[in-house]
Design goal:
Shape: rod-shaped
Order of helices and strands: H
Strand content: under 5%
Number of strands: 0
Largest sheet: none
Helix content: over 70%
Number of helices: 1
Structural class: mainly alpha
Length: 22
């Protein structure tokens, strides 16, 4: 179950980077 939380965290980070791209 820890893996799921980890994946969510990564997705959040990825989105953050994508938003900062612009």
């Amino acid at each position: 179950m820890k893996f799921v939380g980890r994946k969510k965290e990564l997705a959040s980070l990825y989105q953050h980077y994508e938003t900062n791209k612009f």
